[in-house]
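Researcher: We're teaching a course module on how sequence relates to structure. For the next exercise, students receive a sequence and then see the predicted structure as tokens, so they can try to spot secondary structure elements on their own. Here is the exercise chain.
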Amino acid sequence: MPVNSFEDYPMSWKPDKKQLVPPLYRSVASLLEYDILNGFLAPNTKLPPQRELADYLDINLSTVTRAFKICEVKGLIYAVTGRGTFVTPNIKNAIFMADSDENKNYIEMGIIKPLDSINSFVAQAIKSIAAKDYLENLLDYRHPLGMPYHRMAAKKWMQRFNMDVPIENIAITSGGQNSFSLILMALFHPGDKIAVDMYTYPNFIELAKILNIQLIPIEGDELGMKPERLDAVCRTNSLQGIYLSPSCNNPTAVTMNMNRRKEIAEVINKYGLILIEDDVYSFLAPNGYFPISHFVPEKFVYILSIAKSLSSGIRVAFIAYANQFVEKITYGIFNLNVKTSALNAEIITELINTGAAEQIIKKKREVSQERNRVYQKYFQFEHPSENPISFFRWLPLHKEWQLNQFEHVALTRGIHVYHSHRFLVKKDETPQFIRISLTSPKDSDELEKGLCILKRFLLES
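Model: And here is the predicted structure for the students to work with:
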């Protein structure tokens, strides 16, 4: 069928033929994945028949079939015999793992992979636990807040980062994102307002949307959120909370210094805000830094996920909270079932108590330091408050792009990076950036190759 006959033909998905590059099946798969993950194809959308799509793109049917298979394996689409192929429900415009090493034709520098090649320490801990005679005791539903000695390990790990609370104020959950869900549902209500940085962790943005909680972006500078701007907003708005990640803000890589932390704490105390402190990157902060939670002892919830520091596959986060929140958070844990398995908590406890956890973060810091040296061969840090061993960098763009346009063009060049609009709370005219993951390429050589491609792409555009 001539391609021109499709000009006015209704199709649920019409990828841009000009963006196809060899190998074609991977290119079609990338276009489809991109449009699904970024919300251009709604859940349960019926895709065009494969033969029809092949005719439209003027390519072989087998090419489309291979492309659909890649997306089906990733869980992005599903086929119903006799009815067709559909977009999987509940695919959100958030950052999560949807890729596979198989058939990948680009260098990953978007999603932050936390150097899981160091998982040999974790594997050894699992082998050690498997040989213990109390293994069966780790396989039941007891202790929703976490076994007492697991919570003692959590307390010890928090003390490592200058956060000291009684074990009665500590719980263990199944990862950082489930902790966010717990906190927002247990301590906040639909319509509540939470202050956040202008550029914020996208999964927190999406979760707030689901729960009908309004995020209020606060301007920042090279040290992070400005306390005077937070104070001004609090004077004119009824805010209930604030979300911050001061050790290494995602996505800007800013580490908030101690003076700024204390200034922000003063505003929190002044207006009685509930602090949600996400300290997933605490292990990258300078020694001697105290969490903001330390300075707001009556109004904090402190989240210390181990996803980036120890192992992304063991879904564990330690949370600590002020006395006034104990009852509500306990109630939430019992009813939302965000408890992690005792087996997972045992693995992390083993790492902490044997000293392996310290070895892991030492190794990760060393690797990340080397990756940052590679980065500085091509680009410079923007200001001194950027964490020098951050897993990611925040690079200004000097030309305006649409999010989907920039990310897809970069993908056709062979690199996967994220545009700043993914992280923007309020979609308005702001400076544009790229977040570049330094830890996702398999080694420094692949990172250097990706940065070289990116440098050339930015110079040409």
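Model: If you want an answer key for the exercise: Residues 98-103 have pLDDT under 50 and may be disordered. The radius of gyration is 23 Å.
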